[in-house]
Amino acid sequence: MVYIKMEFLKDGIKKILFVGLGGAGQRHLRIFNELLPDDTVYTAYRSTGKTPVLNPNFSVDEEGSLEERYGVKMVDSLETGLSNNPDLIVISTPTSLHYETVLQAAESGVDIFIEKPFSHSLDGFDCFQETVKTKGLRFFVSYQRRFHPYLSKIKKIISEYELGKIISVAISVGSYVPDWHPYEDFRELYACRKDLGGGVLLTESHEIDLCYWYFGRPLSVFCSGGNRSDVRLDVEDTVHLLLKYEEFDVQLNLSFMQRPNRRDIFISGSDGSVEWNAKGNRFALEKFKSGKKEPLADPNYTNDAMFRSQAEYFINSFTISDRSYLDASKSSLLIVEAARESMASGKIITIGQNI
Description:
The protein is an alpha/beta fold. It is 30% helix and 25% strand. The strands form two sheets. The protein has a nine-stranded mixed beta sheet. The N terminus is likely disordered.
């Protein structure tokens, strides 16, 4: 597919530093390269360089190189990369390595685009947040599911109270991590290693973010789960959360050792219901009083389209004044930390609304 460069971006981002070029980082590199002018300068720092060059479908390019494909120049350290005064840093390292990099970038006065989640814990978040605000930086987290047309449609439906009073919410995500990256041993993947910030709570935090985006912070969290599969991991691979809001609860099931894959949402209200299923990308809205039903489906919609829509929004519309992704980063990690505490104690954990 041939992409046309958008000329009105020529005075925008001119230099980007990529830190980490695994699967996620290479996707961001490819999409930014498709969208930005040809004279954009790309540099990258890779601490290991283990991930091979990937095609858009995540198959391995046996002969190509990132330098040849994207014109990216490799540097030997983060400090060297930052010394080139990039306009933007894109961080796609394992989760436990995010904080040191993102803080150094903020202190250097560089706008930030980071893979979810912000980090593996909230340690140091307030210091980082203050630095971003003081220096007037853009900070964005890659929660690309906010840019799925049906999932954003659900946000609009909830915001406009089309369902009436929310009664119940059920969200499920299931996948099989050994199938994610055929080019590497899944046991070495960051998602499966505690030291790299793994575990399904952080790895599948997209749906935790959706809960926050749709409904705000829950009042409390109850969670059960752990390493439920027959593969011994030092992280949780399956969890079941109950997010308690003032008048309803959200049931959230996450697993990356589950077959077959599933991803679905069902929300029931006093005036209607809405649901979405990733299988066939099917959406359905029903209004009880009028009997109106709105079934939609777009089975050809791709994950790549979400990432592209997200990048277009970031390049063209995202401003310094938008601090929503700071709030989202903190809230999603508050939920994760409460879930971890609940799993360990067997108790319901209250989340402070003013933290």
